[in-house]
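Input.
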Amino acid sequence: MALNVHAERGKGLRKCPALAGWIDAQTCGQHRLDEIRCPATCTYLKRHQRYEREREAAAFYETWLEKIVPLIRHNRPEALDLLLALTCDLYYFLDENPSTQDGDLLEGLKFLRRQLSPIQVVELSGGPLGQHALNSLKAFQQKHPQVDADEQARVIDCLLDIVATDVPQTRHKVYGLMGFLERHFGDALSKTPPSPDAIVVPTIVTPD
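Output.
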């Protein structure tokens, strides 16, 4: 036990890499990622994220399946490839930037969607997440030039529906996306983005 570097309490049992000192568990739980800017390497943060991802994965999975049914029903495999590629690339960004909130995720995708609008919107930056997503989209466009802008826009609209939230300060969608990918596509995830062709989409039964 050592002197708590956070002002609220006297003693600390957890070594906090963000504050370069010791804090207690309650302070860690109350202020992580908000007042305390935790690095992605923090052991206690990883433990917390693992729990939250597992807890949010099921709800995100149900929403994801519901929203991608039209892509499968209308036999648009390349659209599904783009959806998976963007989702995986978002995972890598979120994994390296743990303070990202649901609102940041939503705004980044809105920025990406605006880039495909027939009315050009001049924007200096879409923020780190928006730029990351835009780079992912450009990489896909180079490999699949036959996928037109309208199809790309439909895919991003699908993603926007999946991550839509009325509470931008939460991380339910962030943790749900990450937990969903880890649970269903874990073997395909790596620091090198996997080919969407290598990812097996869960079986979906749709009405005739």
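DSSP finds seven helices and four strands in the chain.
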